[in-house]
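pasting for ref. prot 1 ->
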Amino acid sequence: MTEHLTKQDFLEKVFNYEENDDWSYEGDVPAIIDFWADWCAPCKAVAPVLEELSEEYEGQLKVYKINTEEEQELASVFGIRSIPSLLFIPTEGQPQMATGALPKDAFVQAIENVFGIKPVAQAAN
């Protein structure tokens, strides 16, 4: 299930940019952060895809959502200029940003390429 993040949640679960200058991910599994807004039609199209992915990769991947209208500071920190913007965060190394509404197969390919993981159902095969 996707989880909505506030600034405080982000500082605790993802990266405390107030105390650290260099990127250091706080999570124990890779994550995708969806920067979105209520008025954004492409964001609404991506939302059910992200819900499916959060279930298919349960325990292997976290899917977070940040409402750019409510969390303007977080949007500013990441230089979000268009939405949806998606931040792919590996457990080690630097995060990568993608913009636009990606189809599900593009997400699956990116998850495999960036994180090296397959959905739970496929991993069992």
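and prot 2 ->
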Amino acid sequence: MQCISCGKKLTEKDKICPKCGKKQPLAENENITRFPLLKSLSPIFLLIGLVLVPLGLTGIAFLIFISIQEKISVLRFIIGLVNILFVTALPFILAYIFKQIK
């Protein structure tokens, strides 16, 4: 490995060139989190998702009950079902996205 500024030969552990003082880019295999706060939100969204699953199941049961009692249209039933599933799945989707942030 060589310094990106002066070309001096460096060891893998050198983060700053001892000759010119230029900070060296990280090695490709080094894993660093640039957004630690966003990455730490992943478990929070997982917990929110786990709370919303029983509520989503209850919402689906209620939607089925209402559709039987009040004879709502199939379109309204599908829209309600999609809304419930989206709200239930959203925290898991966000948890996955925030986990992927580096």
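The radius of gyration is 26 Å.
Residues 36-100 form one domain.
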